[in-house]
Amino acid sequence: MRYPAIAIPPMAIGLVLLCAPALAQDDAGQIAFNNACRTCHTVREGDNRLGPSLSRVIGRKAGSLPNYNYSESMKKVDLVWDKQNLDRFIANPDAVVSGNNMKPYGGIASAEERAKIVAFLESAGR
Ligand code: HEC
Which of 30, 34, 46, 118 lies 20 to 30 A from 87 at CA? Predict the structure, then answer.
């Protein structure tokens, strides 16, 4: 038996193909964040949990949210969370802010995984 031809405009197929990689990348960032950070952080503004909200964290001064009770080390450190500092921090928090209170957290050895999370944080909470 012959199936009727399904009419999908070629343009629509093109669009799906174009969008799929971008979507997959966003998902990967979200998943990496969920796996490694979401136990303690969200990206909603003002939503502090065990850790401070990470909404708009890129470009933010470390230890600067008014409604979060940071460790003395985090309050005192003179640092802005640019992409590089953030990458180093999630690789090994104590190497960047010694005596910080982000515990228990083992660090992420994979540069690829860290890059996904940093990219996710760059686009999240805006
Ligand atoms: C076990 C809970 C926990 C996990 C998991 C965790 N954090 Fe944290 N995070 C904290 C706590 C607590 C602080 C506050 C540290 C302090 O005051 O010294 C913090 C602080 C931070 C800060 C500093 C924010 C600011 O306002 O200066 C950043 C950035 C951060 N975390 C990013 C991450 C990222 C990204 C991940 C995942 C890769 C992650 N954290 C995983 C608990 C956690």
Answer: 46
